[in-house]
Amino acid sequence: MKFKGIMLMLVMSMVLVFAAACGNNSEGNGGNGEESSDKVSGDVLMDGSSTVFPIMEAVAEEYASAQPDVKVSVGVSGTGGGFEKFSAGETDMSNASRPIKEEEVKALEEAGIDFTEFEVAKDGLSIVVNKENDWVNQLTIEELQKIWLGEATMWSDINSEWPEEKIVLFSPGTDSGTYDYFNEVVLEEEQMNKEATLSEDDNVLVNGVTGSKNGMAFFGYAYYLENKENLNVVPIVNGEGEAIEPNAETIQDGTYEPLSRPMYTYIKHSSVKDKQAVNDFAKYTFENAGDMAEAVGYVALPEEKYTEALDKLNEIAGK
């Protein structure tokens, strides 16, 4: 009897240990209905805006530590180029530095692709000049328009006290959402000066301005911050008549207007539902986008905006 009693106790102990282990495993796999530590595998394909790229690249790098078996590809075809790939069914997510256009929505509808727009951060489109340029202390939107339409080709055309030297322009390419935004807000849909050098790569624009004393370019705030030791940012006169530089505060509160703007990612519903990796990465994005945006030089949204995005994501996934 003694032997049987000992054996019974051992068996019961093993059962309790096994049960505890199962309970812990269940909790770690999302048994509490909230966070999951499950390992995920698969791929996430996204393309689009070079302005949004630094945020998504930072998120993808951090995510790789948590989910090393997921391959996240972040392309930079520009906002328009990204939407073309999105409507062709080549990507799960499309990053954009402007809202989607009607014709792009139509292309997605014709392809039978359901999607949702999510805001991820804020940006201040930054006007920059060469570090040696010590004469441009501010510009109005009207003056910017004259320069970029080619109506003013010399600095002295803007201000007679400025050098009588030709302005050298560097612009994002026509597939860029930054180009579209500038074209709408500053150029009012008129033809940009054909002598401007265009590129989808913002680093080309930075190098263009740093290499030319009379250079001028525009691009996202993060690229200015990354290169601020070699560039001067130009204060822009807002609707109140104040010359405002872009920074975290002026971009967030809207005083740096009209060049403050939201940045987006668009997510395909079927990818969220059918690809665990996409759902998991998207969730990770909205849990970390604020910190990542600030880490790379953009401005985070209020926390409730990210909470709303997570709720919407769960709704799409049917959770």
TrEMBL record:
One Pfam family matching this protein: PBP_like_2
Subcellular compartments: Cell membrane
Secretion signal span: 1-19
Record-annotated PBP domain positions: 35-287
GO biological process: phosphate ion transport
UniProt-recorded Gene Ontology molecular function terms: phosphate ion binding
Keywords noted in UniProt: Cell membrane, Lipoprotein, Membrane, Palmitate, Phosphate transport, Signal, Transport
Its membrane topology: Lipid-anchor
Any one annotated GO CC term: plasma membrane
Function: Involved in the system for phosphate transport across the cytoplasmic membrane. Part of the ABC transporter complex PstSACB involved in phosphate import.
Subunit structure and binding partners: The complex is composed of two ATP-binding proteins (PstB), two transmembrane proteins (PstC and PstA) and a solute-binding protein (PstS).
Family: Belongs to the PstS family.
Name of this chain's protein: Phosphate-binding protein
Lineage per the UniProt record: Bacteria, Bacillati, Bacillota, Bacilli, Bacillales
